[in-house]
Design brief:
5-stranded parallel β-sheet; about 325 residues
Length: about 325
């Protein structure tokens, strides 16, 4: 695969880090950031797969779900934080973002633990460290952790404006969602009505139907209720394929619903789970306004990977 100049430069930095690890070096690492579809995950996965040391690759949502599960099992968050990187020399952390003050406080403790234990870290993110936890009401609380990141990791920008997912020109695509579909069907002619109640821990969630390994959800139920990324992580392990019906023009949906939908897509994408969307309008109308929205541009980029059958346009 041909890489652009910025990608080649980032790969050289990752190669140098690999050599440092092979020579027994500990700690430090790389914070690789840039726009959506620039190939950050591809480069990180290439680096991760080449390592022969004890290692772990984890997605942001999966990390917090695992952390809370460990805290429940061990009886305290402190114990969970101590165990989170036990025995690991390298931690690869995909799609690092801090938008919530509670997550920020947990992550501050995690970063301290990682540095103390000398774990080498590779992080991918859409924003530089200074833009983590952007809410001005809380940003100052995370500044010490931002400074720790900047002191500990090499900050590398994967510059460039080209989104390789949308352009389809290589240089960053990884094949995920290749078999999924984005279907314009405001009437939902193919929508089933075989409701099933799914149990998630002590709560329940209604789905439209379950057919073999395929689960059907209504957008309103899935994204406008009290669901969380942890719920989606639980469900993604149960079903090989998801169908989400009734996806509206997202500019008309609540911010919470749109962000939950973004979490759904992130979790399915990371798990390489087939996704079919039945939407009120075409992709541009449904999600095009998200292109320049911090934290949501990735949603449009990933939805663009879904095939759009000509019969449904």
């Amino acid at each position: 695969m041909l890489l652009d100049e910025a990608q080649l430069s980032a790969r050289e930095s990752l190669d140098a880090l690999r050599a440092k690890i092979a020579a027994g070096g500990v700690g430090g690492g790389i914070y690789l950031w840039g726009g959506v579809g620039r190939g950050k995950t591809m480069l990180m996965d290439e680096f991760y797969n080449s390592l022969s040391v004890t290692k772990r690759r984890i997605h942001f949502h999966e990390f917090f779900s695992d952390l809370h599960a460990r805290a429940h099992g061990l009886g305290s968050m402190g114990s969970a934080l101590e165990r989170v990187v036990d025995g690991i020399r390298v931690l690869c952390f995909d799609e690092f973002h801090i938008d919530d003050v509670a997550d920020a406080m947990f992550m501050a403790r995690v970063l301290d633990t990682i540095v103390t234990k000398g774990v080498t870290v590779v992080v991918t993110s859409n924003v530089p460290p200074t833009e983590l936890l952007p809410n001005p009401l809380f940003h100052e609380q995370f500044v010490p952790s931002i400074e720790l990141i900047e002191e500990t990791l090499d900050i590398i920008e994967l510059s460039g404006a080209l989104d390789y997912r949308i352009s389809g020109s290589g240089g960053g695509g990884d094949g995920r969602f290749a078999s999924g579909e984005f279907i314009v069907d405001a009437g939902f002619a193919q929508r089933p009505s075989e409701p099933v109640q799914l149990r998630i821990g002590s709560r329940t969630l209604w789905c439209e139907a379950i057919r073999g390994g395929v689960v059907w959800f209504d957008f309103e139920v899935l994204c406008n209720g009290s669901t969380s990324a942890a719920d989606y992580l639980d469900l993604v392990d149960r079903f090989d394929e998801w169908v989400v019906c009734g996806v509206p023009v997202l500019a008309s949906a609540s911010e919470f619903a749109v962000r939950r939908f973004g979490n759904v897509v992130d979790v399915l994408y990371d798990a390489d789970t087939r996704l079919t969307i039945y939407a009120d309008a075409d992709l541009e109308q449904v999600a095009g306004t998200l292109r320049d929205v911090p934290g949501l541009a990735r949603l449009f980029s990933r939805l663009s990977l879904l095939r759009m059958p000509s019969s449904a346009r």
